[in-house]
Amino acid sequence: MINQEAYLENASTIAFQKLDDVSGDLEALAEPYRTIVLVYSAQGTIDNGGLFYFFESDWPGNPPYSLFADAYRRIGRMEAGDSIDYAAKTFGIPFPEKDKEFRNAFIEKQFGTDETEGEWDVEWDDCICGDEQVWSDLASWLQKNYPSTFR
Q1: DSSP letter at 63?
Q2: Helix 33-56 / helix 100-111 crossing angle, nearest 10 deg
Q3: Which of 60, 27, 22, 23 minimizes the C-alpha distance to 42?
């Protein structure tokens, strides 16, 4: 039995080094490194503040949100991928990842701020926030599909 935490720490270190090798271009990053980087980056942000945090800032290179959703689905977290896709579609514009100002205005209008309440025309499923199963599923996916890559 492997130590999952050590295994994922090693895998993420290698994956982020590979990301540096492609100058931070997520779309140029090969599998399985892309999935590791996407899940690690998204999950860390979402665990700190839900989908609000995920959408409020630009990701380096403004990759399509579908890359993140697909990474979650790839490791078996279908509901998480669907939640990201649904939330991205609620912005109502073709490429919300490219318009931080619009996203933040939308979030403030819909959900409010610490001082105000929003209109709540939409609701996001924050099932991903705090989901520890993500890490087990990522480790299982890596071991099943890339068994010798991170030993």
Answers
A1: -
A2: 60
A3: 60
Structure tokens at 67: 């890359």
In the chain, the amino acid numbered 72 is Y
What is the number of alpha carbons within 13 Å of residue 73 lying toward its C-beta? 11
Cis peptide before 32 (omega within 30 of 0): yes
Distance (Å, whole) CA 70 – CA 10: 22
Model-level pTM?
0.91
Strand partners, 112: 117
- Conformational region of residue 139, where left means phi above 0, alpha means psi within -120 to 50, and beta covers everything else: alpha
Residues in the chain with pLDDT values less than 50: none
Nearest to 139 by CA among 23, 42, 1: 1
Backbone angles phi, psi at 62, to 5 degrees: 50, 55
